[in-house]
Amino acid sequence: MRQDGVDGRSSMALQIGIVGGGQLARMMIAPAVEMGIDVRVLAEQSGMSAGLAATAVGDYRDLDTVLAFAKDVDVITFDHEHVPQDVLRGLVDAGVAVHPGPDALAYAQDKIDMRTKLAELGLPQPEWAAVTDAASLDAFIAEHGGRAVVKTPRGGYDGKGVRVVSSAADVADWMDGLEPGAALLAEELVPFTRELAQQVARRPSGDLVVYPVVETVQQGGVCAEAIAPAPSSAGRLADVAAEIGEAVATGLGVTGMLAVELFQTGDERLLVNELAMRPHNSGHWTQDGSITSQFEQHLRAVLDLPLGDTALRAPHAVMVNILGGPSEGSLADRLPAALEAHPSAKVHTYGKDPRPGRKVGHVNVAGDDLDDIVYQARAAAAFFTD
Ligand code: ADP
Question: pLDDT tens-digit profile of 321-340?
Fold first, then answer.
């Protein structure tokens, strides 16, 4: 749907349209500039993180708005997974290249659809059930040791829409609010020893690369840290994680970056928790720890360009999120002291106002000594919070 040469842009450059103006879109801008790819963003409002690029403000739920935005680009991709299916399909019907496409995104939009598909593919996951009433949820809880995790299938993020329950009464509000025919997702409460994430990139042509599996640390349902590669993952564990990642990417037809969040259990099994079909917080370390960052890789993949090397640049890399930010002043006020104290730290900020619990930036450090880089990254990130 591209018309070359509009509004004075180079007719030679590839053009990518990103729906969503958050930090993930923002972090695609730097590698796009480096590779000479023009970026346009359809932001929910003005002043968002990705407002550095040519930005239109509009409602991503409105097909006409998104079609107008898509008019001059080579491919449409996303900062989030919330674009409704009818809009996605409308784009495809109009001849727009959309990556990831609607069929794949459907599995990232609905956790029950995802569980159903992963079961069909025979991939390992927690025991689960779609429950529509209190009696069936109580039965599931009783069969799984008296506790379960209940999730709203759609719209959850950062632990919102996830509750650990011991009775259906604990989610009576969700159950009462269910539309006819809708269900909640019940899962066994997995006694995991740690959480891992496997990044994969896949082109429309089917070519695929995997990153080393990482360990993620969550605080209150929010990713706080990632360590690459996951400690003690060399060999079989890394191979199994990569196999699962490849199977999900291929089986679901994902194009672009895919993050597969995994639970590792005490008996060394890996179970799929959830999926993100875009660059993901668990892959931010790649900006400074991998030969090809997940943001560059996503651009390459959705434009069907050859994929980049996923090897680490150093034996270890860590990412520590800056959550909340300072209660007074801005992140910029804290930057000089952080850079002074930790010259090996790479500070990334998202142009967002500080607010308790909000992801406003992160710090990456790569190096030879894991203990030292974890210390450096945590200490540098601490400059940005109280
Ligand atoms: P979100 O979509 O909000 O990120 P997740 O499904 O990833 O929700 O769940 C958030 C966190 O809740 C996970 O990172 C994990 O720590 C915990 N969790 C989710 N599902 C389970 C489960 N079945 N068993 C144990 N813990 C779980």
Answer: 999 999 999 999 999 999 99
Pocket flag, ligand 1, residue 159 (CB < 6 Å)? yes
Which residues on neighbouring strands pair with residue 228, listed in sequence order? 317
User: What's the CA-to-centroid distance between 317 and ligand 1, angstroms?
Assistant: 24
Q: What is residue 6's predicted lDDT score, i.e. its pLDDT?
A: 46
Tell me the C-alpha distance between 18 and 34, whole Å. 17
Asked if omega into 229 is within 30° of 0 (cis), the reply is: yes
Residue 351, pLDDT above cutoff 70: yes
CA of 224 to the centre of ligand 1 (A): 14
What sign does the CA torsion over 58, 60, 62, 68 have? positive
- Provide the token pair at 371: 């203990």
E-assigned strand segments in 134-211: 148-151, 162-165, 184-188, 192-202, 208-210
Instruction: Encode pLDDT of 51-80 as tens digits.
Output: 999 899 999 999 999 999 999 899 999 999
Closest C-alpha to 187, from 261, 253, 252, 240: 261
Query: H-helix or E-strand containing 277?
Result: none
**Distance in Å, CA 125 to ligand 1 centroid:** 12
Q: Six-digit token pair at 315?
A: 């034996």
CA distance 279 to 298: 7
Measured CA to CA, the distance from residue 339 to residue 250 in angstroms comes to: 42
Ligand 1 neighbour 158 (Cβ under 6 A): yes
Amino acid of residue 268:
E
- Interior angle at CA 158, CA 165 and CA 258, nearest 5: 115
